[in-house]
Design brief:
The chain has 117 residues and is mainly β. The chain is 10% helix and 39% strand.
């Protein structure tokens, strides 16, 4: 589990346009985000947020959130969330969202999300 992966899911869960960062504790392995969400790996290897939502990667590669949010591949490589939000991985490894937000890694243990410039 890395901070960027958690940041992307945290942005989907929060649905906010406020910038935030996520930091992974290298010893514990958990990730804490400044938007109020934190995540750990559960016994099955899924990401579990402190609000009780689990993110599970399905056999076909799609994601399913325990709160009912689902995903499917949209046009031009965009992942479409059932919330209406879409995300696409950029060539530099960052993630661009349809709502104008972007998340990027800042080293191995930190990620930041904010409005694209």
């Amino acid at each position: 589990m890395n901070a960027l992966e958690v940041a992307v899911y945290a942005l989907v869960l929060a649905g906010s346009m406020e910038p935030f960062t996520c930091n992974r504790d290298a010893v514990k392995g958990d990730v804490v985000c400044t938007n109020g969400l934190a995540a750990t790996r559960d016994a099955d290897g899924n990401i579990e947020f402190d609000n009780g939502v689990k993110v599970v990667r399905l056999m076909d590669g799609r994601l399913a959130f325990s709160n009912g949010v689902t995903t499917h591949w949209g046009s031009a490589g965009w992942v479409q969330f059932s919330t209406g939000l879409s995300v696409r991985r950029q060539g530099d490894g960052s993630f661009r969202f349809s709502n104008g937000m972007a998340c990027a890694a800042e080293g191995e243990d930190k990620a930041a999300c904010g409005k694209r410039g």
